Amino acid sequence: MKSIRIGVIGAGRFGVNHLHAFRQMESISAIKLAAISEIDPLKRKNLEMEFNIPVYEDYNEMIRKEDLIAVSLATQDHLHREIAVNALKNGLHLFVEKPLDVTSEGALEIMNLAEKNNLLLQVDFHKRYDPYHIEIKELIEQNKFGSFLYGYCHMEDKIIVPRDWFKDWVSHSSPVWFLGCHFIDLLSWLMGSRAVSVYAKGQKIKLKELGIDTFDAIQSMVTFENDAVISFDNSWILPEQFSSIVNQGFRLIGTEGIVEADSENRGALSCFTSGNGVRNHNSGFIYTIKEASGREKYVGYGIKSIQHFAENLCYMHNGGSLESLDGTYPSGLDGYEVAKVNEAIHHSIDSGKVVAL
Ligand SMILES: NC(=O)c1ccc[n+]([C@@H]2O[C@H](COP(=O)([O-])OP(=O)(O)OC[C@H]3O[C@@H](n4cnc5c(N)ncnc54)[C@H](O)[C@@H]3O)[C@@H](O)[C@H]2O)c1
Fold it and tell me: Which residue in 39, 263, 271, 342 is deepest, having the highest Cβ count within 10 Å?
């Protein structure tokens, strides 16, 4: 059977998870991690050694030479649009890291092109794959909570993320583009309701002092079609000593019930003399287990989200239609909706006004 050849574009901190996720499917499906494109020469050298497949500097050359069926894209937030458009113009199915693009215009262009060319466009909104969130979604679908009235979400990174990891490109992103998009999508998906208006405030103090021009924090009040009003707090200036890289969770209150999820503290912590205080383990996102063979395997909802794209490719490879997958994965439309909300959040900060979507 012909293999389903996937290329990964951008193999930085997160792109390597795409590589592991696809590589692990090779032994159980027609998926083939065929090639990588990465512009950093040092990373290219290491990737060649670790994955033993062609690694290209130029993703267009990879597309020309590798007979790919799909690509997955994990370049920096502001570098998705051009690559996504080129991949879709070349007839490739596409998996894109969140956010789909940092403009709604870009997200719309990507979405429209995928639709026009009848290609699968899937966005990495991994919160939908967290088993705790899936259970909550099932309860909501059983109408346990009545009509939603209000809610609250937070997603906050330690300062090392913008200050040390992504210093070169954070000024092209923001706490809502990098973090907030996850929970905007999650709450919209959980409630089955799109956002209709936004009011937001933001602060630039701490990172500005460090010479980094982006928001420390953004607070957004979002009204949804179902009239629920949800507050989203996003920041990336938590102290280095905080108990995990990301603090996150949400609560939702309806006329018939309440649901709360702490997606950071899941009840497992560690602390050791040589460490930096108490650490919470979100063992569920991405972690490794040892298989009987002794080989390391990457698992968790962060991996599941990536592999779901490959599963969809397998489904279509075996004759399933793209249309029949509608509503079963985070789509281009979902990515576009989130981009509209995030853009409206920034417009509201600038204007001081409520922005309708
Ligand atoms: N799903 C998640 O949980 C999650 C977590 C972190 C980051 N992300 C997202 O993943 C994306 C990448 O983030 P990251 O943390 O890996 O950033 P990163 O800066 O570590 O990696 C980006 C990589 O893309 C490479 N690159 C840039 N332009 C390229 C091009 N034209 N061709 C080939 N390679 C190119 C860079 O050299 C770099 O290695 C971002 O959109 C980010 O928001 C998602």
Answer: 342
Q: What is the pLDDT of residues 20-64, one digit of tens each?
A: 999 999 999 999 999 999 999 999 999 999 999 999 999 999 999
Kindly provide the b/e burial profile for residues 215-254, where b requires at least 16 CB atoms within 10 angstroms of the residue's own CB.
bbbbbbbbbbeeebebbbbbbbbbeeebbbbbbbbbebbb
> Of 13, 101, 161, which is best to mutate to test ligand 1, by the most ligand atoms within 8 angstroms of its C-beta?
13
Ligand 1 binding pocket includes 189 (Cβ within 6 Å): no
Distance of CA 10 from the midpoint of ligand 1 (Å): 6
Domain 128-284+340-356, CATH number (from 3.30.465.10, 2.60.40.3080, 2.170.120.20, 3.30.360.10):
3.30.360.10
Q: Looking at the DSSP assignment, which residues form a beta bridge with residue 247?
A: 156
CATH superfamily for domain 4-125+291-329: NAD(P)-binding Rossmann-like Domain (3.40.50.720)
